[in-house]
Amino acid sequence: MADKYEVFEQLGDLEKTLTMTLAQVAHIRQVLETSITENATLRMELEKLRERLAEFEKKEVKKETPKDQPNPNLIQIFNEGFHVCHLHYAERLAEGESCLDCLELLYR
Ligand SMILES: [Zn+2]
User: Fold this and answer.
1) Which of 76, 75, 73, 82 is CA-nearest to residue 33?
2) Do 52 and 86 lie in a common domain?
3) How far is the CA of 107 from the centre of ligand 1 (A)?
């Protein structure tokens, strides 16, 4: 059996390693969180541009504007847990949270 000093030394090493690993996990979590939010923001920006482009193209060919349908891409982003409303734009929804502003925007 290893002497007490050796055991404590090993525990100390293990503790250091675990602390470093935890810090790495926290960092990776933060990076992932940031890129997920950024991704949602970009997809919403893309939707806005698509809508603007569609408006623009309709004007070009002078077609009648069809009845407004809920935007399926925005619905998907909302269902993935992000606000699509202007007030909380691209913020994460809390677990089980809903938002009247988002629903109003999607289904008005
Ligand atoms: Zn919202």
Assistant:
1) 82
2) no
3) 13
Question: Does 54 share its domain with 83?
Answer: no
Indicate the number of domains in the chain: 2
59, 75: one domain = no
Measure CA of the first residue to CA of the last residue in the chain; give whole Å: 73
Tokens of 29: 């979590």
Please tell me the distance between residue 11's alpha carbon and the centre of ligand 1 in angstroms.
48
Q: Encode the chain (108 residues) as per-residue pLDDT tens digits.
A: 568 899 999 999 999 999 999 999 999 999 999 999 999 999 999 999 998 898 888 877 655 545 567 888 899 999 999 999 989 988 889 988 999 999 999 988
Ligand 1: centre distance to CA 35 (Å): 20
- Its pTM stands at 0.64
